[in-house]
Amino acid sequence: MTATFVGMPPFPEAARAALADTQLRSNLAHATATIRAKRAAVVAEVDDWEELRLAGAAIKDNTLLHLDEHLVALEAALTARGATVHWATDAAEACAVVARVARDHGVDEVVKVKSMVTQEIGLNEALAAEGVLAWETDLAELIVQLGDDLPSHILVPAIHRNRAEIREIFERRMKDVGRPAPDDLVDDPARLAEAARLHLREKFLRARMAVSGANFAVAETGTLVVVESEGNGRMCLTLPDVLVSVVGIEKVVPTWQDLDVFLQLLPRSSTGERMNPYTSTWTGVTPGDGPQEVHVVLLDNGRTRALADEVGRQALRCIRCSACLNVCPVYERTGGHAYGSVYPGPIGAILNPLLRGVGTDEQVDSLPYASSLCGACFEACPVRIDIPSVLVDLRAQVVDAHRAGAPKPEALAMRAAAWSLGSGARLGRLERLSGVVGRVAGRLGRRTLPGGRRALGRLPGLGGWSGARDLPAPPVESFRAWWRRTDGGRTEERA
Known about the structure:
This protein is an alpha/beta fold. The protein has two domains: 11-305, NagB/RpiA/CoA transferase-like (Rossmann fold), CATH 3.40.50.10420; 409-494, no CATH class. Helices cover 52% and strands 11% of the residues. The chain contains 24 helices and 13 strands. α3 packs across α12. The longest helix has 23 residues, at 22-44. InterPro entries: 4Fe4S_Fe-S-bd, 4Fe4S_Fe_S_CS, FTHF_cligase-like_sf, Helical_ferredxn, LUD_dom, LutB/LldF, NagB/RpiA_transferase-like. It comes from Nocardioides pocheonensis. Pfam families: Fer4_8, LUD_dom.
């Protein structure tokens, strides 16, 4: 199962708390606006951007249709180059493999490349339970780890923190786990990055084992690919003796030629750069160069469940660029923690229910509703995932999953509406009754709306809807009554 942040409530409740945090909203608005502007500028430079998007989507879809074949080819190529391949059905199996490798080599700490999939399976916590410390080496991940925090963004996990907060975390926590922060540390970005670099250097130099994910896995050669911007990934992938890479099975691409498309789409969509600063590739074991023992864990953890969903399987195209988060008006106001998973924002709102299934967890079932369906995510997605369509389909699945239980007020209201509208005679009687309600409400309404009608207050059972909207009182005279009184409107025309 996909890990959910412990104790996270359903999205509406978590979002309400986030909206009340003005500092959080300020941090998010500044960061997402900056990333959006950078992305828009570099995308505008590419004349065939839409063709690249179509190519990326087509490659991913075709790969998913033949995923079994490509995974077998990937395993064979990895094995031929000296890597050991492990298959993991779920998070527990994947964590057990990594822990076993660590025990076999007697290590009590590992360095990590930024990896969404290892966060998904809760690897750090699983290793800690085995007495192995996992050190995050990406700057933003380090901030989150030192602050005993949770990631809030796919690309920039510490997007919810500002420079002053980061300086305070470094000063308070670095000394407890390694080299302390400089005494004269200020909140200048360059100085903060320098403090992180000095702190991490000693960990890089003594680490005997590293853990990574992979952005892509090329089936024809058995090559894994990691793209990053800081160089910490390169350190993790070259210095230690042992490397374990945990890779979701959807990350495979058939050929190097296919990889070319994604290395154009990813940096522009994620960091707003024309080219990624560090693109590391490794193919098994190379004698005398880099790790001399390489393990690759191919992880399912709900991906075959998502693959079986004809509408939702397109979510497996995702290349984790975070473009959808940066344009989403909901994410910009609530941040990532409200989604209760390492996959936040629009892609998280579909990926988590697809991986875990609906109908068993209230928090997961709330995610398809964490959207205004504005469509900005689809326009920004470099592989054209139609997130709004998947959200609508998942909402239907959530409703269907709960049909056997006690009906909710909304369902009862819809049944009542169907019964009323199913008969002209019943509708006429209800219209006459609504006129009585309208006359009473005209005297008791809380305020007058434009046009003279009165607004009702909060309705029992519908407080979440009527508490934030002006619900007009029913008209005193129904359309049918008006039609009879005016002879179809002709009486008023003569007057």
